[in-house]
Amino acid sequence: MDVQIILEGPPFPPNYHMKQSLGQFFFDSASKFKDRICQIDAKTEKSETFLTVKQKSVRVALEMQKRGITSKDVIVTCSALTLETPVPILASFYLGAKVANSDPTLSVAQTAHMLSLVSPTMIFVQESSLTLIEESLQQAKLQAQIVVFGTCDKYPTFSDFNQAKENEEMFYPASVDIHDTGLMFFSSGTTGLPKAICHSHFSFLNLAYCFCESGLKVDTTLSYTTFYWISGLMMLTSSFLKGGQRIVCTKVPEAKDVFEIIQKYKVTCLFLAPVLTYPLTDYANSGNFDTSSLHSILTGGTPISEQQMTKLYATFKHTCIVFAYGMTEVGMVGMFNPVTDKVLMTKKLTSSGKVAMGVSLKLVDVETNKTLGPNQKGEFLVKSPCMMKGYYKADCSDIFDEDGFLKTGDVGYYDQDGCLYIVERRKEMFKYLSWHIVPSAIENVLLEHPEIKEAAVFGMPINEEMGDAPAACVVLQNGSKVTVQEIADFVASKVSDREKLRGGVFIVQELPRTPSGKLKRRDVKNYVLSLNRGTNKQ
Questions:
Q1: Is the same domain home to 363 and 493?
Q2: Cα–Cα distance between 123 and 274 in angstroms, integer?
Q3: What is the CA radius of gyration of the chain?
Q4: What distance in Å separates the CA atoms of residue 68 and residue 62, rounded to the nearest whole number?
Q5: CB 383 within 8 A of CB 340
Q6: Which of 287, 336, 277 lies closest to 307, judged by CA?
Q7: For position 463, what pLDDT does the model report?
Q8: What angle do CA 171, 47, 250 make, to 5 degrees?
Q9: Sheet holding 74-78, edge to edge
Q10: Cα 399 → chain centroid
């Protein structure tokens, strides 16, 4: 009989649970922290207190209520980060409505698909993305009330909603079941069409608690991700949980600006995707900035090399670099605590840390589903009180095993110290001559080449017998004259025979990524397959 080996993260404190609705939580927290600074616009330097944000969100909630919005409705936002963007989200929570957020950088087809999943009643959209939303609604054959951040003669504006209301001081959030869906996120779509992932009020607030108790110092946070991503909502919720301030950037700032923001506002926690760490380490020697306030840098979502982790530690000498592992469906799965695990994490630079609070994890063989032990490679399965309710109006039974563990699709292992290592997405692995090929392993080799800025590895179909041969698309450094033959030879000198780039090397100007920086290998592969064979190829 197979004895299951399960890793357990630290337990929740005895008798502890977040028992509020999201609306009640944000409402009470804003009252609690009152005149503390809640958010600051990094460009304009304008700041707002928690009470200011609460007043705006109450006014918007009352206007939404006047226009028929109830707890049965779905509200969508589509905007870059501004001081206004969180307000309709909080207002929706106050009314018990479900929130789903889009991203203005997505295409009409992507946006239309996501809107079709949730059928929103009202959409708050930035002025520059109004056409995107109009065309997406038309393509999805949907109708929704549109509210514009900015100026508009065709639709009501955020300013129209944010007007003083009679008896606004008497407003109180609606009472809702904390186990009902409170917000939805869209899966990244790197392995298929996005799905609407449902989190209850209970699951998301418990996730926020775990995040804040992980050792990160969230007094002053800086993050560029929009509320389309769970990390964006997590940073917002953490600031309300701890009374910290958020530094808001409408777009991803230049490296110089990041260092200036850290120094000026004494940022304590910086969150960014691995791909966005490279400009910081490249710029590090160009200026003399004080980053001593920066307690931790949190990164994750895609692989990061040991070389880049070493550069980050060299650049931010006072800072813990936390490479975390999580997924939208379950939140945080693994990360080092920058306080208690500080020594260990500097020795295991490519580890995603230990199992997070409240999480149960098991590792299974991808072929037999047999439970595995330390230093054996398999798929991670997880269970947590922070886990999603499911996919909105869609079946999700196939992603759970018989014990209720969620199948992550992530392949990796854990070592004798219980530290997790993510090797690859299961669906992004491919076989060549019956051998599993791990794209990220070859990508890390490519990134060691001084002339290569970015790289994406994928399987190039050969035939049924041989499978897919490794191929690569690369973005070169400015002015580089390196040839595809030189790149192929470089890789061949550092990898096994089966990992050589027999499928070709293709030089491109940029690689397709999701708004948070995740590589879209399917788009890379489809692009290469559409090229004339022999063009730009080794």
A1: no
A2: 31
A3: 24
A4: 10
A5: no
A6: 277
A7: 73
A8: 100
A9: 145-149, 122-126, 74-78, 98-102, 181-186, 196-200, 390-391
A10: 20
Q: Judge if 358 and 424 occupy the same domain.
A: yes
Q: What is the pLDDT of residue 528?
A: 86
pLDDT for position 1: 47
**Where does 304-429 show beta strands of DSSP type E?**
320-327, 331-335, 354-355, 360-364, 378-383, 390-391, 406-414, 420-425
Dig out the tokens for 18 from the structure: 């977040």
CB 8, CB 418: distance < 8 Å = no
Q: How far apart are CA 238 and CA 315, in angstroms?
A: 26
Task: Provide the domain limits for residue 35.
Answer: 19-200
Is 1 within the bounds of a domain?
Answer: no
Exposed, middle or buried by CB within 10 Å (0-12, 13-18, 19+), for 41? Answer: middle
In sequence order, the β-bridge partners of residue 321 are 297
The pLDDT of residue 370: 92
| Helix (H), strand (E) counts: the chain | 15, 26
DSSP state string for 473-494: EEEEPTT----HHHHHHHHHTT
* Cross-strand pairs, 302: none
- pLDDT < 70 stretches in the chain: 1-3, 16-17, 188-193, 426, 434, 464-465, 516, 532-538
**Does one domain contain both 171 and 24?**
yes
| 13: its two tokens | 């404190």
Q: Residue 53 has what pLDDT?
A: 98
Q: Are 362 and 408 in contact (CB under 8 A)?
A: no
Q: Which tokens hold the place of 508?
A: 């491109």
Domain CATH number, residue 116: 3.40.50.12780
Asked whether residue 310 falls in the same domain as residue 434, the answer is no
Residue 450 makes CB contacts below 8 A (sequence gap 6+) with: 477
User: How far apart (Å, rounded) are the C-alpha atoms in residues 361 and 345?
Assistant: 20
- 165, 266: one domain: no
Specify whether 171 is located in the same domain as 269.
no
**Are 31 and 52 within one domain?**
yes
Cα angle 178, 184, 188 (rounded to 5 degrees) comes to 145
Verify that 369 and 439 share a domain, yes or no. Answer: no
Q: What is the pTM of this model?
A: 0.84
**CA separation for the pair 219, 246 (Å, rounded):** 8
